[in-house]
Amino acid sequence: MAHLTDRDILFGCISGDRQAQEAFVRQFSDLVYRTLQYVFKTRNIPYSQLDLEDLHNTVFLKLLDKSCKKLRQYKGKNGCSLSSWIRLIAVRTAFDYFRKSRTDALARGENVHSLGTMFALADETPHPWALMEKEEQSRLIHEGIQALLPRDRLFLKLHCMEGLSIKEVASILNISEANAHSVKHRAVERLKTKIAQNSQQATQ
Fold this sequence. Notes:
Helix content is about 75%, strand content about 0%. The chain has helices at about 5-15, 20-40, 50-75, 80-100, 115-120, 120-125, 125-130, 135-145, 150-160, 165-175, 175-204. It contains eleven helices and no strands. It is globular. Helix 10 packs across helix 11. It is mainly α. The chain folds into two domains: about 1-105, Rna Polymerase Sigma Factor, Chain: A (Orthogonal Bundle); about 110-204, Winged helix-like DNA-binding domain superfamily/Winged helix DNA-binding domain (Arc Repressor Mutant, subunit A).
């Protein structure tokens, strides 16, 4: 199986080939471990080898469970490699773990309202935005984020809500810093537009 390409292994996994699934785990195991370690370290969260092993196993269970449902979702669009897709799944799995253990700021709802300040939403819709309760502002922000593309959503959560630098997010997403800045600009503009639309509807 060592000579097979990522695509060969992917199709083998989806077709239920046990050897392909074993090769898949061997080939991407180090990537998953490195990604999980990086996320723990950037969040300054202590971890043990057992934590890493448990999350490592959880990532691959997610990818191979239910007839490889997660792997079937991988389309390879916009230059997204299989490695990048697996890295995204690993990051999301780590954040799910943080939320459940209540050690991550996102789980406590911190920085949600500051997102509006960062994007200068008050300047765009001063009167409606100022009149809204924080709960309503939070709802609009979350609705706006959910309307974004998956990569944009993850980028904003990592950079704006988790506090990771552009360089750190670029590393996690396996893109260049220049590309990361472009992703941020597009995501911010889309989010601002969506929130402005929703806030106007909320005050009509």
